[in-house]
Amino acid sequence: MKILLLEDDPLLSKILTKHLSLHYNVTPVYDGDSALESVEEEKFDLLILDSNVPGITGLELIKELREYNDTTPIIMITAYQDTIHLKKAFTNGCNDYIKKPFELDELDMRIDNINRTFNIEQNLPIQIGEKTFFDAYKNRIIKDDKIFSLAKKESELLNYLVTNRKRTISKEELTQNLWTYETMPSDATLRVYIRNLRALIGKESIETIRGMGYCFVS
User: Fold this and answer.
1) pLDDT value at position 123?
2) 84 to each of 87, 89, 165, how far by Cα in Å?
3) Burial class (CB in 10 A: 0-12, 13-18, 19+), 195
4) Do 48 and 5 touch, CB atoms closer than 8 A?
5) C-alpha distances in Å from residue 138, one per residue of 17, 64, 71, 126
């Protein structure tokens, strides 16, 4: 499991990172802006966010991610003891909530519950070719036992095509489901993404249906 940990207290961050790293791949960040940048660049299985941090707060970050249809499970940790912040956290879209101070065992149990609820450990690479596998959760292609990293949008695009394999997907459907209105790519940009994917998984894997769109055929 790949976890992003947002905690601005250096000592607590060090303790949590050391503990979680025994079982998971942990990326620690110390302010909300760095957390947002990390989420935009990488795919995480779980976000653990402190509510009160420099820059964009944990509460604000949750709201922004959910508004952009990011469904990554989120556990919020906070020093607030009132129910007002608890309600706001769940309203914004968090999946679980831990009040400080807490025991590491409690955090472990909550992560285990998230794991079961979202079947995170079942998110294994899927075979898309004879010796080619796609790991949508780590944004990478494994081909002939070699690993090739994908940009986040390339991974999202391939995941959409693979999920809808053998169905022709129009350019409009792709852009509407993978981009916001303000960030929709041009046709040329979309073709670049497709060309990059074909270079890794084989030109024949993604077929262009003239005048209609693309189809993953492997």
Assistant:
1) 65
2) 5, 9, 45
3) exposed
4) yes
5) 19, 22, 16, 12
CA distance 111 to 21: 13
What CA dihedral angle connects 180, 186, 190 and 193, to 10 degrees? -90
Q: Alpha-carbon torsion 43, 176, 201, 187, what sign? A: negative
Alpha helices in 104-180 (DSSP H): 104-118, 152-163, 171-178
Q: Is 50 helix (H, G, I), strand (E, B) or coil?
A: strand
Evaluate whether 188 touches 115 at the Cβ level (below 8 Å): no
Strands 213-216 and 206-209: antiparallel
pLDDT, tens only, 13-37: 999 999 998 888 899 999 999 999 9
User: What counts of helices (H) and strands (E) characterise the chain?
Assistant: 8, 11
Cβ 93 vs Cβ 81: under 8 Å: no
Which amino acid makes up residue 99?
K
Tens of pLDDT, residue by residue over 121-178, are: 666 788 898 889 998 878 899 999 899 999 999 999 998 899 888 889 999 999 988 8
